[in-house]
Amino acid sequence: MLNQISVIEFVLYLYQMAFAAIFTTPFIDFYHANVPILDFVSAVLFGIGTVIVHFKIRTRRGMLVLGWFWGGITALAVFTLPISSYHYRLFVIVPVLVLQIAIGLEWIWGRLERRVPTRVALAMICVVVGIIAPINTEIYVNRMALLCRYGVDVQTQRAGAAACFLKEHNIRDTEVIIVGQYNDMHAGTWKSFEYLNESLRFSNSFPEDEYDFRPFKGKDIYLLYIPERFFERPVIEAGLKELGEYETITMCGEIFGYMTHVRVN
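and the corresponding structure tokens:
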């Protein structure tokens, strides 16, 4: 891209993308929320507040707000890549965005108070706040706080869900063999296994491997299957003693794997 446009044009483009993250671009990375940082009503109030603050640039308060806003935009968005990460990097300026929204709302309140009775003005402000509150509650609670926050690839989702499953079931001081694939979840690449389960020892069983459990003779071990290889269970576990029913690893209503507990005779 830099080969086609000047550096100045590229920097302006990055500023454009930073503002798009606030107003129009969906919040996808890490949170997968199909909304920008500000809703439409808040964005209008933010615009009013920003104009007012720029007119007060010579005051200390104005300089503080503008320095926080433009400094955050420049340091955390324009000087960082990738562009898709702008949303969560700009969390640092969310307080000042809210402050500018409040300034815009205060300006509207002042204009209304001069033209209509105080009760009417207060009712109109309450209507505006009453619109903003449920919109943002739905966004931040239903679309973000309760959403599964993983990387965009299914392998990372599976590794995270499986590692959490092992930790939550308090499985300790034993062997866990991950029946996976090179291009899917497996031990070694996804460090969430070791990070969340320091006492467990992980190894892999790939499709081309022979199922040799002799190193674990006389031990109770766990087999962790990716969904695509669970059908191989009768062959893999032939000659092993089951120590209970297999368990399904799910998160957010999606099956990420299966686990069995067996004894190697």
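(Above: one complete record from the training split.) The chain has two domains: 7-145, 154-263.
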